[in-house]
Amino acid sequence: xxxxxxxxxxxxxxxxxxxxxxxxxxxxxxxxxxxxxxxxxxxxxxxxxxxxxxxxxxxxxxxxxxxxxxxxxxxxxxxxxxxxxxxxxxxxxxxxxxxxxxxxxxxxxxxxxxxxxxxxxxxxxxxxxxxxxxxxxxxxxxxxxxxxxxxxxxxxxxxxxxxxxxxxxxxxxxxxxxxxxxxxxxxxxxxxxxxxxxxxxxxxxxxxxxxxxxxxxxxxxxxxxxxxxxxxxxxxxxxxxxxxxxxxxxxxxxxxxxxxxxxxxxxxxxxxxxxxxxxxxxxxxxxxxxxxxxxxxxxxxxxxxxxxxxxxxxxxxxxxxxxxxxxxxxxxxxxxxxxxxxxxxxxxxxxxxxxxxxxxxxxxxxxxxxxxxxxxx
Length: 377
Ligand code: NPG
Known about the structure:
Structural class: alpha/beta
Helix content: 25-40%
Largest sheet: 7 strands, parallel
Strand content: 15-25%
Bound molecules: N-succinyl phenylglycine
Number of helices: 13
Oligomer: single chain
């Protein structure tokens, strides 16, 4: 498909409640949406970068800058494919190859990849889930619970989510708000509730004993306890814990995933398309996990309905064997920019319409938009 225009649109959405992790507190999202326009079709993608470079070095302003000056010029006016198929004939350039000379910026690249893919799939009426090889019509929904001011507040929040039907609870932890909190939640909810924790790099190897104190609580996993580049530290920590370690920030590519698994740095992998540069790389990591019999699950970045549709389609692949951070729209936003994702018996339905299967609601989009920029060849 020849890319005729790329629209960059910023939308601001308040979160229904503050979300605190060991990286900081988020009260809303300043989202960069990408709309790719081609002959007879258009497609949407969401850049999951946050307003500040606190999760990775990417942030929304930088993503918009790199798209405007470095990525879009490589796509505009070019016959591009993201499906690798010959829908446009054998002359189409691959969107990944076109962006490859630009180093880094995986979240910006992922947004463009998805927008091109969405536009391309809409031309043939095929759904993203179908294109990726989904085997499920719905996916188990997990919920991430931020660090609360008090233990009582945490138990109330967890109760609320369990009442809504969530099938797995992830607790954010940090030193001092960890073992006692997890014990309190486990005692409160009983043994049947699937629980896991996420430290967002807040610990050091010297904290191994403290982390091993989580072992009695039957957690599915401990996510990213140590700094992202410390694979050897994770391997050592993994030998001292019974609970499996899972990596998130450490895994930016299938190469990273292979290294981490070979080193024994983790036994479970969190896959986020934005963190790894798009769906093609996400599926490669998925395939690696399947080949090595390693459980995987789909992480979340507080996406609007656009990014959520993508994650839910991805999570419908067979190797996603654990519930993802894939919650209903209402867990994040009072008014999502698409028709809301809702829980049915603790699950979200995989979109079946053409492309990503959702589009922004024009009125909501207009009301939330803070700026638009149209890029042309
Ligand atoms: O449900 O989308 C969600 C949130 C899941 O905890 C979640 N995300 O570290 O994985 C994370 C965390 C995060 C959110 C990180 C926003 C960065 C930004």
